[in-house]
């Protein structure tokens, strides 16, 4: 691989090949470029001053409180594990991680692979004192992050207790911010649209019908600003939010939701009403009276009940809910029931020409279901296809390679503790004794954190192995295929193989196309025409 510096004079000393890792936490910082660019400049200066050859510069926009989820950091780790580099440069230690335990794991891993670690703005050596300083900096970085989050939350709650909206983001449709961004004021142009949406809902229009009508008439949306994917299109979700949000009756609530990370995923849930903060009347002016709002909620519930009743015979439609896609506009197909008893799939956009001038399609459900399942049977009765697919699904154990660095570091901590205890016995002054005490306390905190990290990695490893066992059982069931597959099991197979069926109008070639993860494409050219 060619390095950035090719004009370094040849010397007898070995060439140190390094990579530079830079990180910011937000897209705004990345767009401004100043933070990442400054980090790169400082690290390049460090590399040039020491004659290092820079093979790769990594730029990452990701929170510093996580490390296994970071793509660029994973690529960096892969480079030094494979021996491509023998050094890593950072601007400051917190660019690698703000979590003390994660830093400990990563540093141990780099040292295990004999990787040189250098910071442009901070200097550490490999002695116990140097390691203590690294841990101290990591502790300060982690503590500062927690304080920063707490200060931000305290500021927001104080603002809410003073009867003010939080002041961030885009206001609800129908409103705009007041001058000091403490409350909403009515947006006259959008308010009329909100009132019309509520009136249509009371008249019995479905949410989809309301969205299609507004789109067809060219009623402006917030998506008209910029180059959003759905520019000028009223989405079902947008109309539903307008019809269900209590802000339109003047009810101002903040801290309605909470976010928490569970098993590596960020989950959003509603807080209990007593935990939400109610703002004073008038912070959000009402656009709809309470009687109208409550009547609309009843209508929405009635429509939901009707939808459930219309889908009582779900097993008549194998490909419902996402497996059928319009070949013209790429929107999902929906199920329609005719008065003569026929059931069809059709494009969701039918009758809504503004959504990409869609031609629309209609196709009999039982014929398409039969053709698609026959094709899937051909896949799952082919041993080679099954083996390939299950290899892809199983993938790599996410905990592989992560547990050993933690275990090695725990062993090192035990040795360091024993060494410090022995040296402490010969301490001659209170100052030295205090220093040893701080080092031991720091190691104990690190040990507790590493044990928690080890427990989490073992949990991930166990889940992976359980997944392997479940997949092996499922694979055996497919290999022993008979005619006993239930409707639910058939849909599980469709989902497992990522089946999508693109459909066009009668006369189009092909009439439909089946795509799955197990193979490329099967067109209806190879199947009897389905009308």
Key structural traits:
531 residues, 17 strands, 14 helices, single chain, alpha/beta, disordered C terminus, 15% strand, extended, four-stranded parallel beta sheet
What's a concise summary of this model?
This protein has 531 residues and is of the alpha/beta class.
SS element count, helices: 14
Low-confidence stretches: 4-10, 27-34, 224-229, 352-356, 519-531
Structural class: alpha/beta
Q: Taking all residues together, what is the mean pLDDT?
A: 77
Radius of gyration over alpha carbons?
A: 30 Å
- Work out the number of β strands: 17
Major sheet characteristics: 4 strands, parallel
Using the alpha-carbon principal axes, give the shape. extended
* Strand residues, percent: 5-15%
Structure description:
This protein has 14 helices and 17 strands. The model is unreliable at 4-10, 27-34, 224-229, 352-356 and 519-531 (pLDDT under 50). The strands form six sheets. The chain has a four-stranded parallel β-sheet, with helices on both faces. With 531 residues, it is of the alpha/beta class.
């Amino acid at each position: 691989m060619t390095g950035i510096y090719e004009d370094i004079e040849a010397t007898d000393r070995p060439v140190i090949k390094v990579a530079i890792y830079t990180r910011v936490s937000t897209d705004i910082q990345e767009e401004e470029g100043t933070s990442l660019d400054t980090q790169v400049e400082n690290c390049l200066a460090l590399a040039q001053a020491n004659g290092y050859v820079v093979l790769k510069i990594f730029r990452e926009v990701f929170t510093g409180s996580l490390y296994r989820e970071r793509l660029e950091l994973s690529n960096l780790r892969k480079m030094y594990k494979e021996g491509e580099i023998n050094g890593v440069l950072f601007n400051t230690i917190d660019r690698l991680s703000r979590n003390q335990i994660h830093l400990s794991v990563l540093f141990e891993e780099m040292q295990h692979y004999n990787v040189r670690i250098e910071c442009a703005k901070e200097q550490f050596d490999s002695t116990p004192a140097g390691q203590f300083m690294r841990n101290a900096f990591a502790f300060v970085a982690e503590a500062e992050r927690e304080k920063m989050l707490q200060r931000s939350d305290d500021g927001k709650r104080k603002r809410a207790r003073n009867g003010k909206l939080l002041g961030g983001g885009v206001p609800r449709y129908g409103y705009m911010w007041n001058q000091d961004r403490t409350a909403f004021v009515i947006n006259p142009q959008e308010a009329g649209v909100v009132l019309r949406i509520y009136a249509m809902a009371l008249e019995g229009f479905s949410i989809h019908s309301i969205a299609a009508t507004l789109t067809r008439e060219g009623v402006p949306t917030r998506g008209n600003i910029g180059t959003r994917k759905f520019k000028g299109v009223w989405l079902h979700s947008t109309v539903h939010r307008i019809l269900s949000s209590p802000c339109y009756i003047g009810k101002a609530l903040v801290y309605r939701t909470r976010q928490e990370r569970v098993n590596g995923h960020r989950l959003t849930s509603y807080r209990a009403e007593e935990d939400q903060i109610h703002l004073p009347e008038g912070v959000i002016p009402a656009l709809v009276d309470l009687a109208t709002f409550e009547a609309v909620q009843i209508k929405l519930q009635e429509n939901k009940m009707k939808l459930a009743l219309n889908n009582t015979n779900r097993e008549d439609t194998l490909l419902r809910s996402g497996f059928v896609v319009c070949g013209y506009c790429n929107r999902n197909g929906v199920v329609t029931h005719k008065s003569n008893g026929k059931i069809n799939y059709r494009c969701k956009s039918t009758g809504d020409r503004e959504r990409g001038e869609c031609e629309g399609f209609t196709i009999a459900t039982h014929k398409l279901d039969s053709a698609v399942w026959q094709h899937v049977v051909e896949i799952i009765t082919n041993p080679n296809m099954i083996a390939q697919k299950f290899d892809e699904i199983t993938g790599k154990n996410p905990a592989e390679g992560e547990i050993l660095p933690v275990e090695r570091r725990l062993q090192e901590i035990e040795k360091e503790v024993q060494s410090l205890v022995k040296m402490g016995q010969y301490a001659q002054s209170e100052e030295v004794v205090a220093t040893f005490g701080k080092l031991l306390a720091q190691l104990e905190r690190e040990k507790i954190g590493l044990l928690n990290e080890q427990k989490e990695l073992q949990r991930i490893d166990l889940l992976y192995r359980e997944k392997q066992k479940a997949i092996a059982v499922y694979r055996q069931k497919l290999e022993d295929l008979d005619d006993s597959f239930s409707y639910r099991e058939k849909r599980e197979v469709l989902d497992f193989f990522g089946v999508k069926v693109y459909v066009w109008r009668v006369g189009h070639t092909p009439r439909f196309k089946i795509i799955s993860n197990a193979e490329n494409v099967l067109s209806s050219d190879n199947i009897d025409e389905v009308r």
